[in-house]
């Protein structure tokens, strides 16, 4: 238990990588270093903002009722017990973390959708690699053969792509162990999700040396097209691994930033579900699309500019969706598939 | 992952010839390669960047076509 | 901002020196079938060593065979000396013909004791430092500093990986108990310092006049108290957050970097309960990413901009 007398001349320093987000009905503290999330009352959110200005003694003196002092002490205990902050003599030595975000790659992630057509994957992956793309998700709406998936994975060998994810339709003729073998053979293959499966199943391989999880997931969920995308719930939120990841979420669009997509017709888009095509990959270089201001615009729609979301305490870890919005045609309205109501603080 | 660190024992007679911190060297056995994975599997040399790159999980959700709520 | 670059990694066996021509200003290397005149590059960032003996000697195994009668190692040492002289010149030549240089080859190694001496003479506070070689002296120091002394390497600690094992040495606290039970009466002259009771550690990356500092709080876990790198059993990662050096410390540290002729490097401090910043050492080839990433300083971008803005 903290004794307040001992610290009246100190400041309480909430570590700079613990970020407070004020929502309409409550606030969150996101501890990026330890990947934890805490809910706090908005009154405490106001209190935290005083920590940078007032010493503990001054904060205590401003309380009128003794019970406020008790609550304050409890709150400090909570912060310290969870290692979210510490007492310091000079708060000016502990500046805030900059949330500026940048990345050396012109494109960091991509979605490629396929249905019955054979994209020129060699060309597309080469283009993505030239743009510095790290993560690629391939979504197939028809049954695919293992050998076909393998031929695509082979194409990543000369690239610097660091993760490929494949989302494929269940095929009763393929033994589940075949997917497993694929994951083992290609370390670049981060995840296979097989939808439309008879059961939910989870094959997991754990590598102790690098603490890497390799996953093959089977889900009964039905997927027919990109229209299934845009799910938002607690499971689609994640606390980033780094301050950079958090900063990107705050400053940029958490789904579309530095993303390019090729839809099932070969159209280059921000995401396959968005209507606007910026040219077909057959005749338009992806690099040229990136020069289009309209294409880049979506990258910078941050949550602060989205109605409802701007009042939500999850906004800085929520992954957003700009394709399916609650007011169709209004790109700045709340994601249609989100059931969270920040004014009531519950999921519908 | 838990690493078992052991202390390296110096021979009594050797101690006087070493700096003090040699009395406190710790070591661990490096894990043997898993038959399915080897360390080198997780990186490869890339010509364009002129260096090794490591395979990594994506830093964020690329799309939300799968509802993870329905899986577990 | 897109520039072509060449990365010369240590032990990149495929690289070989073709020739140097002082008159034509050529320093030509061959790598992966391509030849490059390294003097054509106008900016260079140096971290640790670029060229190594392996890049010059095709088959270093040959040097293991003896050559002279009755003498087994002279030739080897002699050729290595010749190689190092040349490597020294290669770096010097590249640095002198480049427009922009960050980090110099000659600065890749600093003498910790020299730096401590300089730091004190400039007015920085440093831990009380001794080099002793007898148990009697150690016991005297333990008593004088109430069991709060530590030992560490004067140069580098042990950091070795064999095929089967990894070996490491860290900063160690010496208690009267360990001294009497574990150590010999006399030993190789060793560095002893009074332990600083730290509230937190500070790592300051210096780049051309600016500091990018980070505070490291590791006190909450006993295992990391003496040396925060020892996180083997620690549950929570240390808290690494942006830090602003007090003006007085920052002014003295800038002086120290200037006196040492360094344009970049990483300085370590311990901050004690009184708020005193105790200077420990400068690592001239400091890893900036370990400061840059947790504090989001984007130092890699700043360096890239400095290298390309010429
Ligand atoms: S309201 Fe907006 S920010 Fe909040 S959870 Fe829903 S989509 Fe995310
Ligand atoms: S914007 Fe929506 S539909 Fe498009 S990829 Fe993101 S989540 Fe999916």
UniProtKB/TrEMBL annotation, chain A:
Which PANTHER family does the record match to this protein?
Answer: GLYCYL-RADICAL ENZYME ACTIVATING ENZYME MJ1227-RELATED, RADICAL SAM DOMAIN PROTEIN
Where is the organism placed in the taxonomic lineage, from the top? Bacteria, Pseudomonadati, Bacteroidota, Cytophagia, Cytophagales
Q: Where are the transmembrane segments?
A: none
- The residues covered by the 4Fe4S-binding SPASM domain are 256-313
One Pfam family name from the record? SPASM
Q: Gene3D superfamilies recorded for this chain?
A: Aldolase class I
Q: What is this protein called?
A: Grasp-with-spasm system SPASM domain peptide maturase
Q: Which organism is it from?
A: Pontibacter silvestris
Supply the InterPro entries for this chain.
4Fe4S-binding_SPASM_dom (IPR023885), Aldolase_TIM (IPR013785), GRASP-with-SPASM (IPR026497), Radical_SAM_PqqE_MftC-like (IPR050377), rSAM_sf (IPR058240)
TrEMBL record, chain B:
Which domain of life does the UniProt lineage start with?
Bacteria
Protein name (Swiss-Prot/TrEMBL):
Uncharacterized protein
């Amino acid at each position: 238990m903290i004794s307040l007398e001992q610290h009246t001349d100190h400041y309480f320093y909430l570590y700079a990588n613990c970020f407070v987000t004020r929502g309409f009905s409550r606030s969150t503290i996101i501890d990026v270093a330890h990947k934890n999330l805490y809910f706090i009352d908005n009154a405490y959110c106001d209190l935290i903002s005083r920590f940078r200005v007032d010493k503990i003694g001054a904060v205590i003196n401003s309380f009128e009722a003794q019970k406020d002092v008790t609550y304050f002490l409890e709150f400090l205990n909570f912060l310290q017990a969870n290692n979210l902050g510490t007492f310091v003599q000079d708060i000016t030595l502990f500046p805030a973390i900059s949330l500026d975000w940048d990345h050396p790659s012109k494109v960091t992630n991509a979605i490629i959708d396929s249905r019955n057509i054979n994209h020129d994957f060699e060309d597309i992956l080469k283009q993505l690699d030239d743009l510095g793309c790290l993560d690629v998700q391939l979504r197939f709406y028809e049954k695919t053969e293992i050998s076909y998936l393998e031929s695509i994975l082979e194409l990543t060998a000369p690239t610097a792509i660091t993760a490929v994810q494949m989302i494929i339709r269940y095929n009763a003729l393929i033994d589940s162990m075949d997917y497993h073998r694929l994951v083992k053979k290609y370390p670049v293959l981060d995840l296979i999700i097989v939808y439309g499966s008879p059961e939910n199943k989870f094959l997991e391989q754990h590598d102790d040396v690098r603490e890497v999880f390799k996953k093959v997931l089977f889900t009964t969920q039905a997927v027919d097209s990109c229209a299934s995308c845009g799910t938002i719930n607690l499971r689609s939120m994640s606390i980033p691994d780094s301050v950079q990841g958090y900063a990107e979420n705050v400053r940029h669009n958490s789904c579309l930033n530095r993303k390019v997509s090729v839809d099932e017709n070969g159209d280059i888009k921000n995401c396959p579900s968005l209507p606007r095509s910026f040219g077909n990959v057959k005749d338009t270089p992806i690099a040229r699309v990136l020069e289009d201001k309209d294409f880049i615009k979506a990258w910078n729609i941050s949550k602060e500019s989205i109605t409802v979301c701007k009042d939500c305490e999850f906004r800085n870890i929520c992954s957003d969706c700009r394709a399916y919005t609650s007011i169709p045609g209004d790109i700045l309205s709340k994601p249609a598939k989100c059931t969270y109501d920040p004014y009531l603080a519950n999921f519908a | 992952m838990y690493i078992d660190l052991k202390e390296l024992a110096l021979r009594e007679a050797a101690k006087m010839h070493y700096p003090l911190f040699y009395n406190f060297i710790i070591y661990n056995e490096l894990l043997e390669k898993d038959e399915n994975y080897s360390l080198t599997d997780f990186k490869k040399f890339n010509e364009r960047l002129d260096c090794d790159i490591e395979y990594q999980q994506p830093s964020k959700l690329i799309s939300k076509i799968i509802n993870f709520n329905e899986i577990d | 901002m897109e520039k072509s670059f060449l990365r010369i990694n240590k032990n990149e066996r495929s690289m070989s020196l073709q020739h140097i021509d002082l008159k034509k200003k050529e320093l030509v290397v061959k790598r992966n079938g391509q030849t490059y005149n390294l003097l054509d590059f106008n900016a260079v960032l140096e971290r640790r060593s670029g060229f190594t003996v392996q890049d010059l000697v095709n088959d270093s195994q040959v040097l293991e065979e003896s050559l002279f009668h009755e003498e087994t190692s002279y030739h080897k040492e002699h050729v290595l000396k010749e190689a190092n002289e040349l490597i020294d010149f290669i770096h010097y030549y590249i640095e002198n013909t480049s427009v922009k240089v960050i980090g110099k080859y000659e600065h890749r190694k600093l003498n910790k004791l020299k730096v401590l001496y300089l730091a004190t003479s400039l007015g920085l506070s440093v831990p009380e430092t001794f080099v002793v070689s007898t148990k009697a002296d150690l016991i005297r120091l333990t008593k004088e500093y109430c069991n709060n002394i530590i030992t560490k390497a004067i140069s580098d600690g042990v950091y070795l990986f064999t095929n089967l094992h990894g070996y490491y040495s860290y900063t160690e606290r010496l208690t009267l108990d360990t001294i009497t039970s574990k150590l010999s009466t006399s030993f190789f002259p060793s560095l002893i310092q009074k332990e600083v009771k730290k509230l937190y550690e500070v790592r300051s990356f210096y780049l051309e006049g600016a500091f990018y500092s980070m505070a490291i709080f590791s006190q909450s876990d006993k295992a990391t108290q003496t040396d925060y790198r020892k996180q083997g059993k620690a549950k929570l990662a240390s808290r690494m957050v942006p830090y602003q050096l007090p003006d007085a410390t920052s002014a003295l540290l800038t002086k120290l970097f200037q006196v040492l002729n360094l344009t970049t490097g990483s300085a370590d401090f311990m901050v004690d309960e009184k708020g005193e910043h105790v200077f420990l050492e400068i690592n001239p080839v400091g890893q900036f990413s370990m400061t840059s990433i947790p504090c989001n300083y984007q130092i890699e971008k700043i360096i890239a901009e400095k290298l390309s803005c010429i």
